[in-house]
Design brief:
Elements: H1 18-24, E1 28-29, E2 48-51, H2 61-76, E3 80-83, H3 97-108, H4 131-143, E4 147-150, H5 154-166, H6 182-190, E5 196-199, E6 208-210, E7 214-217, E8 226-228, H7 236-246, E9 251-255, H8 262-272, E10 278-282, E11 285-286, H9 302-307, H10 312-320, H11 339-346, E12 361-362, H12 366-381, H13 385-409, H14 449-459, H15 466-472, H16 474-477, H17 482-490, H18 493-496, E13 499-505, E14 508-513, H19 516-528, H20 537-550, E15 551-553, E16 561-562, H21 564-573, H22 581-608
Helix pairs in contact: 2-10, 2-11, 7-8, 10-12, 17-22, 19-22, 20-21, 21-22
This protein binds glutamic acid (GLU).
Length: about 600
Amino acid sequence: MSSLYVVRGALRRQGPPQSCHRIFSRSNFFSRPARGGPTSLLPSTPARTRFAPSPTGYVHIGSLRTALFNYLLARATGGQFLVRVEDTDQKRLVPDAEEKLFEDLKWAGLSWDEGPDIGGPYGPYKQSERLQSYKEHANQLLKDGRAYRCFCTPEELDTMKKLALDESRDPVYNKTCSHISAEDAARRAANGQEHCIRFKCDSVAPLVQDLVYGTYKSPVPLDDFIIIKRDGFPTYHFANVVDDHLMKITHVIRGAEWLVSTPRHVALYNAFGWESPQFAHVGLLVDQKKQKLSKRFGSFNLSSWKEQGILPIALLNYVLLLGWSPSRDSKEKSEIMDMNDMIQKASYTLQFHLRFTKGDVTVNSKNEFLQKAHMRKSLSESSNTESVLASILPSLLNSIRKCEENRVSQDDSTPHKDLGVRIGQLVRCAHSTESPSGTSSTASSPVSQIYLNALFDLDGKSFTSPMDFLKRNVYHLWEIPEQQYRVRLQEQQALLNNIVVRESSGEEVQQYSQKVSELAATLLESLQGISEENWTEQNIKSTIGPFIKSIGYVSDEKPFQAWGWKFLRWVVSASAAGPALILSMVFLGKGETLARVSQACQVAQSIEA
Ligand code: GLU
């Protein structure tokens, strides 16, 4: 058997915590992990792992996390990671779930060596296409006397169950059909009598050796569970075992909810005389109230994370840290990891460290920190902002579209719903037909991609979510309604009569009273003097910098309180917080900037009048 390094450190909890308690309450755990104590050595050979989702729902952060753990173990050991679609529960299939599954995994940045879409030496990788194999294996168990046909009808089983519960017994199958002779059963089956096939369990359930939970013993004897259902499809338990064996899976990392089922799986492995893979059951994700995460949890499904514009690598990094920690031996302690870091940390000194938390894992909000960190890292590493922007572009464009729709449909007098401020039209240079380079955007995109690239160059590092980004850069995309200038200036009414401009010649410093409209007029004149081609950060700074610094107001405490940059922010963005002002002016271009200065000047004049 290949080897895997198990380290059980500070993260290990004492005993199963709350919500797992129910699942494990009747279970026995031995206190030590499966093999050889706290640092037992596991794969030195390549691991074959799998992600085996059922297309009965979409990928969520819990399943992405399981997929990632399996992926990393395979990559860290130079093994293979495969995807297998477990679609045996035909009644619960969600029509587009399979298609979305591949789309989501690819978006997240995972790749697989074998799978339904790419094939592989042990295919097909979709259980509904492997029915013949399950039939053959079930027949083998029938032949060996390890399984039997059960003709009990669903109604009979219901009655049996009810009776058992009434008599306070476990509602397990009462083995009625195990007494039918094999010949008789085969004859009835040949006559078309509906039946399922059950596995004949030993009275004592086998022990499970789990890399996270240690030795696990089922607290109750196993019942004769179904392996082939009446519809001819295998059950999850059976198909899973047959496939993991035939696909030569060495390690199964999956959610802790499957631990209670694993004695059944081990019983099947034993009945076939197969070696079972190694199991690592990872704690379930729970919310702050210790409830299992479900679809009701806002950010459970991957789609909601995508809509929030999370970078795929930030999401992977986030889910990886939910219940797993990098090797303690690793020199690099940073929690911010790209894919290579993850693989490298998972395989430090070429051993995969299954440093998993035992028990439930409460989700946290580290995603915000990781998103910012990855955004900064990606933008500083990537010479091409486009590639970073590409992964969040759909969500960003969606949000812009939404704001546009609201703007167009809303009464002008109501504050803008999503941005919390009122917006004018999209700035001309952002428009599809008038982007800075003259490249037009597609009909469905209100803003040219070139413009968004430039905006990302300007402020991508502050991106956390599309809406936050739009709020921060609202007036880089939309014009400023006059009313905004007015409101923001009136908020500073108290100092408007005390504005001064300071001039110094030699030792002497003089201050002149000024009106805001006069400041704006002076600013306009200076900026007009800069030609289009010289419209650069440096030129703007040297042209208007001294003037801006000379602007202040007289207060009770101080004869001169600087106010120039606040004035400029009012002019450029109606006082909205955002990126550095001069860079914003460069970004907006000379035309839009001068238009804003003129508009600000007029508003000031009207207020002063
Ligand atoms: N099809 C099961 C699921 O979707 C797979 C469990 C396993 O990995 O064995 O959870």
